[in-house]
Specification:
Helix content is about 15%, strand content about 50%. Among the domains are: about 270-375 and about 410-485, Collagenase (Catalytic Domain) (3-Layer(aba) Sandwich), CATH 3.40.390; about 485-625, no CATH class. A hairpin with a 5-residue loop joins strand 15 and strand 16. Helix 3 (about 315-330) packs across helix 5 (about 425-435). About 45% of the residues are buried. With about 625 residues, it is mainly β. It has a 22-stranded mixed sheet that branches. The N and C termini lie far apart (about 70 Å).
């Protein structure tokens, strides 16, 4: 027996759901749909409910905000589709499910913003396709089926300010994922398939601005006899009729053993709000999930100067790239890039085609920078390779290559770049090398993310020469390469004979001061940081033998003037403190007693208040924030 149902909606339909199920031979299948439709949207659906099978055909069109969701269930399997749009759209969806198989096919077109997604799961395997556009047009046909295995495909055309496609599969042995997107006015076309059973498989191609970035060879290159491998690429694009605007693109293809723990993207991107300040926000960074997983990796860069544009010398190019590499080194106090001769000029090192035809994707173990004619759309590109070796949640980068587009006018002179509009090589190299050590682009973030608008970061758009890292750039690379300074104990002592409080990080001094100099040990009160970073300040120590007082300050002016005008002797930096409260830190308060000529420092707020109220000390505020005792 079959039931045939036709329904039509042509009015606002928020929260409408349609569910049905049927059984045959002891097996139950079901279909669940939910719609949230704008008042201008019409929807028509025919539903055929048979014995152990369900089939449906749905058509809809309209404008405004619309959401259409569907899921099919059958023994051990589930298929889902999802259409979300803001703007005009039209869609057609056909679905069918029985006890042994299920399929969904959807076609959609729209203007404005739209996201289409299909995903199927069978046991512990799944496969899916996704396409999205912001401020543009999208036309896509997607299919999903589940029988012996799960397979999905899409054929998509996108034009607009931002577009992205994703093809993924989760097999019993491996994960295979491909993601390609662009930001800034552009076009994208994709033909992709994915499938999963014992192994995850995927193939197809993606082109941005008519340049093929991803093809079957890309999937072959990362599959490499099952060995874990990741390939990523990111670059800047010139957009607009005269090429005056800047956009970007990125892609990632990964084939990894399923048993490994993968980085959680929510852990890779700082989500704190970006605050306006000099250097931008410390939260303005995004991580790729990959890095060089050794201390001081000493990545040797090579420069193949063939094709160097007129107007700049090979030596100047070499120095510009080396300077960019050293800027990243300075931010983490490591040799990310080789010490000494950071860049070696070598005409024999291969600067291969960044968009190679099938079978020519090459990882040769050398990190090479070079020049390539890339046409009117691309300014600079970086491609990196990583393997499936996970260390502290990060995949290990193996190689990074950089291409600079020889079709543009370049300079290595900062003044020339500022006055003529020529592209500054060091600024672009700084951005591209940032990709090669694990940082992602900010301009590809969603429009509502405040980090996208923080243009003080090198990892954002190139709109003018920028040879210094922003606060977010530094924070991101320091998170990747664990430059949190080591903690050192801060001991406190008191000498009642000369009325002096002494603070030291040297245990021998702490011990001998008590034995030989009349000091009384008062214990460890907190921890300082042994090394400074971009957010910390040095804590200077001074000694005045005339009034027998030790003074500690983060103000270099006070440190200098105290020595010049007040009889203090400089004793150097004893550690580092933060200028604002961070997780795990507490304030260090400072007091001054003019009667006994003594500076007192404490992390105990009650002592800070009582010292002023009872013991004649004057409160002088917070010196900085130091590590709390645990």
């Amino acid at each position: 027996m079959c039931f045939f149902l036709v329904c039509a909606l042509a009015a606002p339909a928020a929260g409408i759901s349609v569910s049905c199920s049927t059984s045959a031979g002891g097996e139950t299948v079901g279909s669940q749909e939910s719609f949230s439709l704008n008042g201008s949207t019409s929807l028509q659906e025919s539903l055929l409910l048979g014995s152990g099978s369900i089939s449906a055909h749905r058509q809809s069109e309209g404008k405004g905000n619309n959401s259409l969701k569907q899921s099919l269930t059958l023994p051990g399997r589930m298929l889902q589709n999802d259409i979300n749009s803001q703007g005009e759209f039209a869609s057609s969806t056909t679905s069918a499910v029985s006890g042994q198989w299920a399929s969904i096919h959807q076609s959609a077109a729209g203007t404005g913003s739209m996201n289409l997604e299909l995903r199927g799961r069978k046991g512990d395997t799944d496969a899916g396709q996704e396409a999205s556009v912001s401020s543009g047009t999208l036309r896509s046909s997607q299919s999903l089926s589940a029988a012996e295995g799960i397979s999905a495909s899409q054929s998509t055309e996108i034009g607009g300010q931002k577009g992205r496609v994703l093809s993924g599969a989760l097999g019993k042995e491996n994960v295979l994922l491909a993601e390609v997107g662009f930001s800034g006015e552009g076009t994208l076309s994709a033909r992709l398939t994915s499938g999963a059973d014992e192994k995850a498989l995927s193939q197809g191609h993606v082109a941005i601005d008519d340049t093929v970035l991803l093809n079957d060879g890309s999937f072959e290159a990362v599959s490499n006899e099952g060995e874990g491998r990741i390939m990523g690429m990111a670059g800047s694009r010139l957009i607009g009729e005269e090429g005056q605007g800047i956009g970007g693109f990125d892609l990632k293809v990964m084939n990894l053993a399923r048993k490994e723990k993968r980085p959680d993207r929510s852990e890779l991107a700082s989500t704190a709000g970006a605050a306006a300040s000099s250097g931008g926000s410390y939260s303005s960074y995004v991580l790729t999930g990959c890095r060089w997983n050794v201390r001081d990796p000493q990545v040797q860069l090579y420069l193949n100067p063939i094709g160097t544009p007129a107007g700049i010398s090979v030596e100047a190019s070499k120095m510009a790239i080396a300077s960019a590499a050293n800027t990243w080194d300075d931010a983490v106090r490591q040799n990310l890039f080789a010490d000494g001769e950071t860049v070696i000029v070598d005409y024999t090192k291969v600067v291969d085609n960044p968009f190679p035809p099938r079978g020519q994707e090459v990882m040769d173990g050398y990190s090479v920078c070079g020049w390539k004619s890339l046409g009117a759309n691309y300014l600079g590109l970086n491609r990196w390779w990583a393997d499936g070796q996970i260390v502290d949640g990060y995949n290990s980068i193996l190689e990074t290559d950089v291409w600079f587009n020889s079709d543009f006018l370049w300079t290595t002179d900062l003044a020339t770049a500022r006055s003529t509009g020529r592209i500054d090589l060091e600024s672009v190299a700084l951005h591209e090398l940032g990709h090669g050590i694990g940082l992602d682009d900010l301009y590809l973030l969603p429009d509502g993310d405040p980090r996208k608008n923080d243009l003080q970061q090198v990892m954002n758009l190139y709109y003018a020469p920028q040879r210094e890292l922003g606060n977010g750039d530094r924070a991101g690379v320091q998170k990747l390469y664990d430059t949190s300074p080591g903690k050192i104990s801060l001991y406190r002592m008191w000498n009642p004979y000369i009325t002096d409080h002494l603070y030291t990080t040297n245990y021998d001094e702490y011990n001998s001061g008590a034995i030989n100099c009349g000091y009384r040990k008062e214990g460890m009160i907190a921890t300082l940081y042994s090394e400074g970073d971009v957010e910390s300040n040095p804590l200077y120590r001074m000694w005045n033998p005339h009034i027998t007082d030790h003074l500690y300050t983060t103000s270099y002016y006070e440190y200098n003037s105290g020595a010049i005008g007040c009889g203090y002797k400089k004793e150097g930096i004893i550690g580092y403190v933060y200028s604002y409260k961070k997780e795990g830190t507490i304030p260090l308060y400072r007091l001054w007693n003019p009667q006994i000529m003594d500076h007192l420092y404490t992390t105990n707020y009650d002592e800070y208040i009582i010292g002023a109220a009872i013991h004649g000390y004057q409160r002088e505020g917070i010196v900085g924030y130091i590590g709390a005792l645990r």
